[in-house]
Amino acid sequence: MNFWDAALSLPTGPLVFLAVALAVALAFEFINGFHDTANAVTTVIYTRTLKPTPAVLYSGLLNFLGVLLGGTMIAFSIVNLLPVDLLIEGTSRAALVMVLSLLVAGVVWNLGTWYLGMPVSSSHTLIGSILGVGVANSLLSGAGLSGVNWAKAGEVGLALLVSPLVGFGLAALLLLLLKSLVKEPRLYRPPVGDDRPPGWIRGVLVATCGGVSFAHGSNDGQKGMGLVLLVLIGFLPFHYAVNVNRPELAGQVTAAVGGIESVLAKEKVELPPAARADLDAIRAALAGKASFADVEEKKRWEVRQAIYRLRKDAAGVPVSAAARDELKPHLRVLGEAIEFVPLWVVVCTALALGVGTTVGYKRIVVTVAEKIGKTHLTYAQGAAAETVAAGTILVAAVTGLPVSTTHVLSSGVAGTMVANGSGVQGGTVRKILLAWALTLPACVLLAGGLFAVGRLVAG
Questions:
Q1: How far is the CA of 197 from the CAs of 10, 74, 180, 285, 386, in angstroms?
Q2: Which residue from 80, 135, 100 is spatially nearest to 454, judged by alpha carbons?
Q3: Binning pLDDT at 50, 70 and 90, where does residue 365 land?
Q4: Which of 301, 314, 379, 448 is disulfide-compatible with 136, CB 3.0–4.6 A?
């Protein structure tokens, strides 16, 4: 059964809300395009390397490609922030309200800060919204603060906290290095009149603009995928529990379960009793099955969760380095069975982010280029800030950590201003820091409040 068949099997009400939720999720990514990617085109526009229209079209294309080629690790970092059993164990109304609350909170905050020209983090916005609905749901259910995967939230929070410091420090150091190696004064002065950068620095700026745009697509695009997957899991949990589109995976998972047993037996290590029960449950559920599609729909979520828990427990058992290497391919198969992104989700997310990049960028561009430093952005500052931003974001994408393009690049610009002796505008920096500090708690409260009201209305 494909997505359309699964969706059309829903009653009219949930089907309408599914369509609305998907539209809002893609709208979030569209807004993310012109909100965050404005940072990527700031330097090429303000150094007169490219005119605004070709700059944003170029950036939009690279964002599109970044989503298509960037992988899916970050998407599941986002999905796993919220214990997805909350979407399954609650009533269908609660799941619907949860998904819509976090989506609406994210869109409202991003639009509001964009209108004010404040370069805030869409990553903070999204993660705060997810935390808000998770905490609100668990509090309303009398489960305390268990509605959030706090271990995963800690990993994500650390990446978001450290990455701006990395951007500031490395961009400042790179500019100082450039000044010591390249003795061309015009690179370190604001452009005057119709002055344009030398050919080689223009090449660097075009390349770094493309690099930041591609990196943004590969990192933030996956966050959009994670949002869409939360919607799909909330509305069609049994269709997206396991990968029914690759029939061979059922046999491969059965073989992987046997492989895990074999490796641990050689090491004379036993799984914890709960993990042993999950292993036996997976084997029983897949016995005689040629595909996950042959598993009864109502049992697919149980299989999915058993695979998820077994993979986590098997990865944590104390074994030798050689045994750890033997376990990796088996654990990878388990991951492929439950962590998959349909191609249409990737393409739609890429289109939303790429098209969003080409509109509405001016407010953020003006803030980053004119209001962070006391002087106009110089050629060398633009090259240094964007080189560091592109590298930092790409490393984060490869390691599966969601970071903020906005914070990395704007802090990089601030770092180059300090290193160049240009100084920074205290008022603007204070506003950016205030927005940075408020985004997470504001979105937690906004999404949690929307969820609480929605639950009250929906009964």
A1: 58, 36, 19, 65, 16
A2: 100
A3: low
A4: 448
